[in-house]
Amino acid sequence: MPPPGSSPGIETHELSARTSTDAPIRVTCADYCPEQMQIEQVTNLNNFLDQHRPAWSMVRWIQIEGLSQMEAIRAFAEKYQLHPLAIEDMLIASHQPKLEDYPGSDEMPGRLFIVGRMVKMDGDMLSSEQVSLFLGRSTLLSFQDSTSSAFESIYHRIELPGSRLRTHDVSFLLHALIDAIVDSYFPALESYAECLEELDDELRIHPAPNSLQRIHVVKRNLVLLRRAIWPMRELISQLQRDKHECLSETTLTYFRDLYDHCAQIIDLLETYREIAAALTETYMAVVSNRMNEIMKVLTVFMTIFGPLSFLAGVFGMNMPIPGNEWAGTFPVFWIVCIAVVCAMLVLFRRRGWL
Amino acid sequence: MPPPGSSPGIETHELSARTSTDAPIRVTCADYCPEQMQIEQVTNLNNFLDQHRPAWSMVRWIQIEGLSQMEAIRAFAEKYQLHPLAIEDMLIASHQPKLEDYPGSDEMPGRLFIVGRMVKMDGDMLSSEQVSLFLGRSTLLSFQDSTSSAFESIYHRIELPGSRLRTHDVSFLLHALIDAIVDSYFPALESYAECLEELDDELRIHPAPNSLQRIHVVKRNLVLLRRAIWPMRELISQLQRDKHECLSETTLTYFRDLYDHCAQIIDLLETYREIAAALTETYMAVVSNRMNEIMKVLTVFMTIFGPLSFLAGVFGMNMPIPGNEWAGTFPVFWIVCIAVVCAMLVLFRRRGWL
Amino acid sequence: MPPPGSSPGIETHELSARTSTDAPIRVTCADYCPEQMQIEQVTNLNNFLDQHRPAWSMVRWIQIEGLSQMEAIRAFAEKYQLHPLAIEDMLIASHQPKLEDYPGSDEMPGRLFIVGRMVKMDGDMLSSEQVSLFLGRSTLLSFQDSTSSAFESIYHRIELPGSRLRTHDVSFLLHALIDAIVDSYFPALESYAECLEELDDELRIHPAPNSLQRIHVVKRNLVLLRRAIWPMRELISQLQRDKHECLSETTLTYFRDLYDHCAQIIDLLETYREIAAALTETYMAVVSNRMNEIMKVLTVFMTIFGPLSFLAGVFGMNMPIPGNEWAGTFPVFWIVCIAVVCAMLVLFRRRGWL
Amino acid sequence: MPPPGSSPGIETHELSARTSTDAPIRVTCADYCPEQMQIEQVTNLNNFLDQHRPAWSMVRWIQIEGLSQMEAIRAFAEKYQLHPLAIEDMLIASHQPKLEDYPGSDEMPGRLFIVGRMVKMDGDMLSSEQVSLFLGRSTLLSFQDSTSSAFESIYHRIELPGSRLRTHDVSFLLHALIDAIVDSYFPALESYAECLEELDDELRIHPAPNSLQRIHVVKRNLVLLRRAIWPMRELISQLQRDKHECLSETTLTYFRDLYDHCAQIIDLLETYREIAAALTETYMAVVSNRMNEIMKVLTVFMTIFGPLSFLAGVFGMNMPIPGNEWAGTFPVFWIVCIAVVCAMLVLFRRRGWL
Amino acid sequence: MPPPGSSPGIETHELSARTSTDAPIRVTCADYCPEQMQIEQVTNLNNFLDQHRPAWSMVRWIQIEGLSQMEAIRAFAEKYQLHPLAIEDMLIASHQPKLEDYPGSDEMPGRLFIVGRMVKMDGDMLSSEQVSLFLGRSTLLSFQDSTSSAFESIYHRIELPGSRLRTHDVSFLLHALIDAIVDSYFPALESYAECLEELDDELRIHPAPNSLQRIHVVKRNLVLLRRAIWPMRELISQLQRDKHECLSETTLTYFRDLYDHCAQIIDLLETYREIAAALTETYMAVVSNRMNEIMKVLTVFMTIFGPLSFLAGVFGMNMPIPGNEWAGTFPVFWIVCIAVVCAMLVLFRRRGWL
């Protein structure tokens, strides 16, 4: 975070002053029209930015993976005249999904700036990554911090002649990217569904001391997912409502479908949260039942030895006790003791205490 | 679910690539007008789709039960030009109720696509099934995954000359189908009402250890029902509000009645959820009361034997104790013991501890 | 409830097929204008319906008490052309308050259909009854299932020359009826207020085991009242908003007053619900305090006899113990014991454990 | 409350039939314009009402304290033609703040009817009083049930030449009255803030058994205040929104300030309610900690005497025990006992149980 | 607070009557345009207010730190004709963020009055300070109660030629100040995030008795922050919506960015509150687990000595007991005792009670 009171946004010329790291950066450029397509791995960035796109290209998608080299970011920011506030949001990369429509001035065309949040499960760890999209009239820029294979299938769809993606405009490509981002939530959800089921079984059979801890972790992650998907849904509904010039009518129909996906994810999240809440309750009930069970049996145990010890004490008194001379008193004493124990056990069981 | 990043919707030509199963498929076609009607079990699907409908038919309803044979789905999708997104929603069949109005192009007429969710109780098990409806100007297609008898009474109403259904247009048939779907919730609700009443009695008389578990199951199912009926109500209110060209004015009046049914179901669901919540509380109170009762009585028991054992111990001491030689000490000791016990019992009872 | 899939509403000709019972039905007809009025107990229904109303009558109110004789219902339904959906809602009579404005066709005038829910306390039992009202331009029909004296004071007001009711139109009569329905909630509320106060006293002095049960019953009934009064308020606000042709401007002012009454009832209901919730909390605290008190005193008791029994045991050991031969050891032993008990009691009291 | 079904509102002629009491009634009349002012204690009400106001008077405020003499109420109701519903609301005086704009007929000018609720702390008791205001074009009537000094400072401001109140119209006087009513909440709030702080200290040092009871009382009173201030805020926002003809533009700016005061009060109320909720939690935690502490120490105590008593019992057995003849066994026994006790205390302390 | 019923607002002439203190007051004046700038520490206030601003100055910002000298406040209030209500809000300084647009009369230009609330962490103590801003067409006044370094970086940005702040109008300066106020929440949030993490670790390892207290403090402070940031967000959204004449189009874009910051802060606050709630739950679970553990082990301990003491008592009885003469009985007795203990320990462990 920049310190309080500092200037908002990052101007293009300030970019050079920021520290770059050696982390690799991968730039992929895809050009396509219904008849032709070309996907290129950019190696020399300056050459690439100096050239014009091929005349046949109706849609150009430049995917930048890696935000570590400030000179590269600056080159894109200058070429495509990105807004300083958008550059800041893109680089700090801890934003929830949002949509900004920066107004264009005369020579600077207005661009739709969209922040999405992709989700990945590494074992039990939930990680999320910001994807920043800039939509122009025929160009889409996408920025991510790390390389990932999430958009690979989209390249396949571009390569396929006659596919719906290939035959539509750049807003359909935007839909494809956001669709991939939204779909990335489903595997995470499935993994938590399994986790909750496991916990449910575990609680019933043998509640471990860390069960509650694990339920809490699941709950917290579900909340994180919910925090990200709600503004995502809001964003999609805003895209439908505001009817930006770059969005074609056909794409809007598809965004409605995407809106439904988000609603479905939210629905699942709510269901899982309620299940997690019910699990917490069950855990509490199981633990308290167990404790009560133990205390009950032990107390019964102690109660039985109260009268017995008293009886033994009585016959240990140093006063003349009738029968204390008779040799049969000892077995009789034991019979009485066993009878008392049996009577008490029967009584306890009858009242449901055992 | 399709993998993330894959193309949205299912194109007609993609249907053939999906795996079909041997599960049977039943197609029923009903044509009617006020004067005439005909209900036919379709055996040869291709012949049927090639023929035109009879000239007198004002409303045609084709009911497809079974979604396993992709060639049949494809035939309907091509003949009635269903939207790829609608086909996907229909086949995946895990959607909550929703309403889509896919715009028609020149030669492809726009169709209203409605997803409903029917509910069935098999013993204690709650199952639900998606019903997908496509409404055209005089045709209604309904798709379900399995054969069911839920719509049988609608055929009877079609067969009855002069019935309100027979004399109205296709939107009234839509109302009849959605009405049947909504009415399917009432038997489930009644079964849960009974279940809650049973649990209430059980809790009061003899709370079983799995009572809480059973309350949780009821709660979870009530939540599932609520998840399905809320969008159902939303859908009906949307139908009333948006005034689609296929919906006649008379039908809208009837949809208002249907909206009331949904409101009634939601009202009942809320009541049952509150009862279930109160039952959980009661269970907790009953269990804790029981436990406290046991602990209290047992502790009283142990308390009584404390002084008695002490007394016996005193007279067992090996020091000169006055009266230890007298033969009457033993009965006197017992009298004292009984007096102590009685005094303590009276004291405990007076303080309300027994 | 009719089975799922059956035809919505009850057509006039279907009424005859429904089973009638012998339960009596009472029909009262009141005609009035500022100058004249006449209240008649109808004995011959057919004659009555065939005759025209007197020419001077500006407002006619027909009150039907008893919904058991289908032929009578059919006669009214035909004469006043009631909508099939309204007839169903009237006969099933388990609806929450609602308002329907069924559109009239050429020869069938549109009527406002209003469902109200009246409340009655029989001892501790809360019962409610549906009142169905049909408002025309100068006629009001009211249907109830049982005879009740709730509307008697309205007849008195009709009989009083110059009263506000007598000098206004039929919509003012509607207001009077709904006012009576809303006012029927106040006695029930008062009875629950008293009940909560009693419970509050009881809890503080001697919490009975069924106190919680009784609080739950009050809570549940408050929820039932709330379920009925919320749509009632909604209904009244809808009447004000929609400005139906049958409602005069003056009446609307009075409906605003009625709306305030509903708001007041809701306010009271919320207050009582919070009091009930606080009572539950108090009950829990009182019970747990009591339990803790008992456990504490008993445990202190047991703790005291631990050292005493040990001491007695020591002097019962069969080893040479100094002083065991001296006759004064016994009184000394007792003095030591009493000293130990006193010391412990002082210690416990000082730490606040007694 | 009038019985259900009775006529709404109280007509002017019905007032005489209501029972008057001997309780005194005080009528004060203030007339003022920027240049002149006159405050008069009215003794002969009929004379006063018959006279016209002085020609120079731009604002007249008549304050009626005491609602017990029906003839006086009737005189005002007739002179200022108050609406029957407003008279009822004024006399029953148990209403939450509200605003009514009764429409005027030709000869009866429309008046704004405002109900406010003033708050007073008598020691720990919270009491509230309804203030009913009728606003005309240049006249303000205020009715209260008892005499109070709350509006005294307003008379001072009227007496002060050049004060903002004196130089503005009647709506500014309305603002001054409502401002005084709203400001009456602050002392009550402060008293509860202190009360909560005291309770907080008390809970930490020595939680009394009635602490919970006292927290409940504070909570309930905070709820009562909240019930009154919410509609007050609503009322003020309605005054701003509806722009009644009697309200000048300048006054509206001041009402915005008043709205802020209400918002501030609500904010404080919410803060106090959360503090009260946290106190309840703290009380529960403190009580349960205390109980646990007691049980723990006592149980440790008892545990120590278990082995000791056993040891003493062993050496009391009537069998040949080695060392039982040696005189040194007794001191050795005591040493062993003390060693066992020490070992156990160390163990308990090390595990954190003491 | 002024007493109830007193005049609203503080008139300029009333200021002199208020008590001034000796607390220092610092006035800084910054004038700038794209080409030139001048920052001046004002020492002679009267001289300063009498002079006109330099002709080149496009934006003038006067920062007043210290509200203790009433004559200085009066001088500003008269020169810039501040509204009495605004002066009151500024001096009482306990307001939540708000926005007022006081209408200007002919010679008195309308000014936007904005109240912000800045936040500071002093160790664990959270303090907040009101910042009052008056925005004119080219002048901005800012009032604070104490001197702080929060706005220092803004002076640096003014000094920097060509900075975005320098080249824009006064509304951009307003944005810079509100931005600094909003950014002041982030360090506080971070400090609470760390605090919660520490508490989380502490709870797991060794829950201190005051842990709950500390969680409560964090919770309460989070609520305070939330109380201040919500109206802040509302204020910013109002600025965007109402399009006041003093706000340029470019600034509005930047305010949208600021709105996002607020949303982010609220998002974090909600996350932390949920974490704090989970911590409370964890604390409760840990404490109760610990208690149960202790009680369990101790009860097991006592249970073992029940049978042993009984056995010892039996062999202490004064009746003929077989084997009591044999010298090997004593070791056999001990073997039996050890066997009983071992058997019980095994049993307990097997049932999971140890």
Account of the protein in words:
The structure is a homopentamer of 354-residue chains. With 354 residues, chain A is of the alpha+beta class. Chain A is built from ten helices and seven strands. The longest helix of chain A has 67 residues, at 249-315. Chain A starts with 25 loop residues before the first strand and ends with a helix. Chains in contact: A-B, A-E, B-C, C-D, D-E. Chains B and C meet through helix 4, helix 6 and helix 9 of B and helix 4, strand 4, helix 9, helix 10 and helix 11 of C.
Structural class of chain A: alpha+beta
The whole-number mean of residue pLDDT values of chain A reads 88
Note the main sheet of chain A. Answer: 7 strands, mixed
Radius of gyration of chain A: 35 Å
Strand order of the largest sheet of chain A: 2-1-3-7-6-5-4
Give the proportion of residues in helices of chain A. 40-55%
Biggest interface found: B-C, 56 and 55 residues
> How large a portion of the residues of chain A is in β-strands, by DSSP E?
15-25%
Straight-line distance between termini of chain A:
62 Å
Which quaternary structure do these chains form?
homopentamer
Tell how many strands the DSSP assignment of chain A holds: 7
What's the tally of helices of chain A?
10
Low-confidence stretches of chain A: none
SSE order of chain A:
EEHEHHEEEEHHHHHHH
Gross geometry of chain A = elongated
